[in-house]
Amino acid sequence: MLSYLTWLSVAGVWLPIMGLAAWAGISWIVGALAPDASWGIVVIGMALTFGLSHALAVSSLIGIGLLLTRRAPSPAFTLLSVTVGSLVSALVLSRIYFDFTM
User: CB neighbours (10 Å) of residue 6?
Assistant: First the structure.
C-alpha cells in the first residue's frame, strides 16, 4: 500500500496536469480547424478540469501525509508536487465552489 501511496503523491499530481495540458492543446487545434465543433471539446475539458482538480487535491493530501510521516521516497520532489498540486487545485476548486476570482 505504501508503494501505491508514494506513486500517487507524485504521479497523481503531474499526470492530471499533463492530461489537462494535452487536452488544452487538442482543444486549441480543434478550435482552429473547426470552430463549430469546438464546444463539445470545451465541455469535456470542463468536466476533466472538475474531476482532475479533485484528484490533485487528494494526491496533495496524500503527499502531505507522507511528508509528515517521513515516508516520502524523495522529500524534495514530493514537496514540489504537494505545493504545485495544492495551489492548482485550490485555485480551480475555489473558482468552482466559491466563485472566487483573482
Answer: 18
